[in-house]
Specification:
The protein has 130 residues and is mainly alpha-helical. The chain contains five helices and no strands.
Length: 130
């Protein structure tokens, strides 16, 4: 429930700031600073050791780049969309694509009923966009 309300409030806040003239990159920078501070405080509070080997740094950098690019375009689309719900519905529908690729790439067992449900969600999204 926290994530549900947190994501909804984040989307509405991004839209509110964009309507009042704040640039997407500035909003994203503030968000990253805020989140990094909270993660750092939690690591200090829980006394988590931060040991990183050279191979992990490469993965952290790649994850950071892809996450930043995704969040930039997601926040930008929220700022220009007439309704925040459209962007979040499209973003949530990406789970359908992940499901199909997990079936194809990892040979996950999937019943016809579940596959029909995935395609039903995708068709519903297409109707929403029309």
């Amino acid at each position: 429930m926290y994530s549900f309300f947190g994501w909804g409030l984040l989307s509405l806040t991004i839209k509110y700031l964009a309507v009042h003239g704040m640039v997407t990159l500035v909003t994203l920078t503030y968000l990253y600073i805020f989140v990094s501070l909270f993660i750092g405080l939690e690591m200090l509070y829980k006394k988590v050791r931060f040991d990183v080997n050279k191979m992990s740094v490469m993965y952290f950098v790649l994850i950071g780049i892809f996450s930043s690019v995704f969040n930039y375009f997601n926040f930008y689309s929220i700022s220009i969309a007439p309704n925040v719900g459209y962007v979040n519905a499209i973003n949530a529908s990406s789970i359908s694509l992940v499901t199909v690729f997990s079936i194809l790439l990892f040979k996950d067992e999937f019943s016809w009923r579940k596959l029909f449900g995935v395609f039903g969600v995708t068709a519903g999204l297409l109707l929403l966009l029309l």
